[in-house]
């Protein structure tokens, strides 16, 4: 179900208002949290995975998407990890996300708005959005602009958060995939026009052979996505671009580990 037109308009107006004039309350709150929480060897990461059914893990047996692989990697690197979001999907406990199946960029911004502006604040956003715009041939020329609006919605309410924006994965439909290529080619300029905390992540290692149904990745495809997010996130962490997480923070990272121990790649994502 999509939001009603009335509620959608209200949230859209709120998004535009925030983008135009800012959110003073949020800015004050962010000023107050900079002395909170790190782990011994790394950083506490409260992550909001934001996107569509690819983020959710639709049509995948485990339902984990890239999220469990990535959490396992980050935790084993010494970071505290906690996912947040309005949805839950996956075969481990820390499976929250905002992956809205079937939704376009604008719809993701509307449906995801409560988590984007809410508390506890994420200090990392992972954005993979635009697949449904391409699949529906929805005013594709302006899709990069719509993504820019979504990024602005995130950064206005979370000015110190790290926002990693994916160039979206391939599609088995050659026409749709051509649109995806054009869309992805426009994203460096979109991301480059934002702050240093907004970074682009290539997903070009995911190939058509890594798809379950022509759109959604299989386990190997999701592992490739995690392997793209991970170095981008760790690089930003090492550069000091990730603000400290608000308290209280619950480190859920251990729940993502393989039951018998070992390398994260042995997981069924």
TrEMBL record:
Gene: cesA_0
CDD domains (alphabetical): XynB_like
Record-annotated SGNH hydrolase-type esterase domain positions: 50-222
Organism taxonomic ancestry: Eukaryota, Fungi, Dikarya, Ascomycota, Pezizomycotina
Name used for this protein in its record: Multidomain esterase
TM spans (from-to): none
Annotated Pfam families: Lipase_GDSL_2 (PF13472)
Gene Ontology terms for molecular function: phosphatidylcholine lysophospholipase activity
């Amino acid at each position: 179900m999509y939001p009603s037109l009335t509620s959608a308009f209200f949230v859209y107006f709120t998004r535009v208002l925030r983008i135009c004039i800012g959110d003073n309350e949020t800015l004050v709150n962010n000023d107050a949290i900079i002395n909170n929480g790190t782990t011994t060897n790394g950083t506490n990461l409260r992550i909001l995975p934001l996107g569509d059914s690819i983020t959710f893990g639709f049509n995948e047996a485990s339902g984990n998407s890239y999220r469990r692989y990535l959490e396992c990697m980050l935790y084993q690197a010494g970071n505290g990890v906690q996912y947040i979001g309005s949805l839950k999907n996956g075969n481990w406990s820390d499976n929250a996300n905002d992956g809205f199946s079937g939704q376009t960029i604008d719809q993701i911004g509307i449906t995801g708005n409560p988590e984007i502006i809410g508390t506890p604040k994420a200090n990392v956003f992972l954005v993979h959005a635009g697949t449904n715009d391409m699949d529906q041939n929805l005013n594709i020329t302006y899709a990069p602009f719509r993504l820019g609006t979504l990024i602005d919605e995130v950064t206005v309410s979370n000015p110190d958060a790290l926002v990693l924006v994916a160039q979206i994965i391939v599609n088995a439909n050659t026409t749709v995939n051509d649109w995806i290529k054009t869309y992805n080619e426009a994203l460096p300029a979109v991301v480059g026009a934002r702050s240093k905390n907004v970074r682009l992540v290539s997903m070009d290692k995911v190939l058509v052979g890594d798809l379950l149904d022509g759109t959604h990745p299989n386990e190997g495809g999701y592992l490739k996505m995690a392997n793209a997010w991970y170095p981008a996130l760790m690089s930003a962490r090492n550069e000091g671009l990730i603000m400290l997480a608000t308290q209280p923070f619950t480190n859920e990272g251990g729940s993502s580990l393989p039951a018998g121990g070992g390398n994260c790649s042995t997981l069924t994502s």
